[in-house]
Amino acid sequence: MPKYDVLAIDIDGTLLNSDHEIPPAHLEAVREADAAGVRIVLASGRMLPSVTVVGEEMGIRPGPCVGYNGGRVCSAETGEVLFHEPVPAELAAELVGRFTHLGMHINYYLDDVLYVDHIDEWGNLYSHRTGSKQVPAGPLQQFDGKTPTKILIVDDPQRIKDICPEFQRRFGEHLYVTITTPEYLEFMNKKVDKSTGVAEAVRSLGVPRERTAAVGDALNDKPMIAWAGMGCAMGNADPEVKKVADVIAPSNDEDGLAWFIREHVL
């Protein structure tokens, strides 16, 4: 019998290695867990279509998928939306205005479609990493009044790091603001993070928190790692993430996910 009934897995930096590929050892271990009866919940900052396709590629049972850092949860089997908490319209409009003025690349996620003003190097970087299709729509102010699931800014890591505190001060009371990779600054509804998303996914399966394991590497993974009955930080994880983890695995380039599954989940 497995030690846990559900395993929530972050994708980038955890399931994937530094080349943004699934190492054979990770794929084998995830399939072993699936075959043993462990339900796999993929939990990512990515949009849901880019999350569900990963599960399909691995050939595991369709299960609940957590996208947008917990902002939207769906059944991979039926497509049913189990949970959705978008960014309020007035805050989304302010963000679009601010970042348009700064000349920074904006990913605008509305109804599981990724809209951009135009195709540029930052959008192409994101699409290369995630497989997400960009829809160039022209000025994003046309969506003022809409409630996107998430807004993501893609730019130079140092610039992202420099502006993050300012935007956390301005929007942190009302929005969940986080850096997920050095190039990404993300904005979601204040009510959501990966722990709320994973909790909704696990609830739909009828599994208690204590029977849930979670593994990740970035700051957006910290809430679900702290929430889970067994939380694991990858060896390449942010130091703040490691502080809340029950166990630290080898890195994503050292088959750390496979180690965690075999040592602590199965």
Describe this entry's structure for a reader.
It contains ten helices and 14 strands. By secondary structure, it is α/β, with parallel strands linked by helices. The chain has two domains: 6-84 and 192-265, Rossmann fold (3-Layer(aba) Sandwich); 89-189, Hypothetical Protein, Haloacid Dehalogenase-like Hydrolase, Chain: A, domain 2 (2-Layer Sandwich). The protein has an eight-stranded mixed sheet, with helices on both faces. A six-stranded mixed sheet has the order 8-7-6-9-11-10, with helices on both faces. Strand 7 (113-116), helix 5 (121-130) and strand 8 (134-136) form a beta-alpha-beta unit. Helix 2 packs parallel to helix 10 (256-265). The mean pLDDT is 96.
| CATH-level-2 architecture of the largest domain | 3-Layer(aba) Sandwich
By DSSP (H or I, 4+ residues per run), the number of helices equals 10
What is the count of β-strands? 14
What helical percentage do the residues reach?
25-40%
CATH domain class of the largest domain: Alpha Beta
The order of strands across the largest sheet is 5-4-3-2-1-12-13-14
Shape: globular
Query: pLDDT below 50 for ≥5 consecutive residues: which ranges?
Result: none
Q: Given the helix and strand composition, which structural class is it?
A: alpha/beta
CATH topology of the largest domain: Rossmann fold
Estimate what percentage of residues fall within beta strands.
15-25%
How far is the first residue's CA from the last residue's CA? 7 Å
Biggest sheet character: 8 strands, mixed
Radius of gyration: 18 Å
Q: Kindly give the count of domains.
A: 2
Mean pLDDT: 96
* CATH homologous superfamily label of the largest domain: HAD superfamily/HAD-like
| H and E order | EHHEHEEEHEEHEEHEEHEHEHEH
